[in-house]
Input
Amino acid sequence: MGIAFDYAPERPEHIDAILNGLDRYNPETTSVFQDYVAQQCEDRTYDCYANLALLKLYQFNPHLTRDETTTNILVKALTVFPSPDFSLCLHLLPPHILNPPSSTASLRSAGDAPLSEAVQKLNVLNNLLSEANYKGFWSTLDSDDLYADLVADVSGFEELIRIRIAVTIGQSCREVDRSVLEGWLQMRGQDFERFITDICGWGIDDTTGVKGTVIIPVNKENEAKGTVVRENVQFDQFAKIIHRAYEQPA
Output
């Protein structure tokens, strides 16, 4: 059995009590959830169920909305791709927030930029990750100072993204050219080697290619398995088809 959607092992008891009671719809709990989002950003925990509850409170009480908290929730959702959490959060935002910002907007910092612009920026990153365009993700992240401001509150954002990229690669590949993987992870040299060997548990074969090949151990996701499809069709089923073929039209 899979892990329940609303399960979060690091969730505090008082947050769990709110989520399982009527207080989850009480506007007075908004500040509690906002503090909890800030805590998640600091200690690298994640609680999608609680974050969605806060966005739902924002729907019912727009005057309580905090743009910074909203963007932090979206950034945290990016760190657990390829799960659908980012899309779930996006669909709880007001329609006017999802519209592209005006081309005349000139404010650039995360604190001053319209929320719609920040959401569009983060949506671009999400699309790149969904498309497995990891090299494009890193180049886009480095292309605008606004991105740096948006992810600044989330501790270890780049490391968390690299881990998720490594997880998806480990589920689909057995070997990857080192130069390609360096671009996907935006890492070089000893930092790359330390991440590959110590964190991922992979190996590097320096005898192949120009820079070598990263060897990913076999697991249940990347193991190639033959599939045999058998159909159990009874003879009387064919008899009915043949009989109908010889029936005279009415």
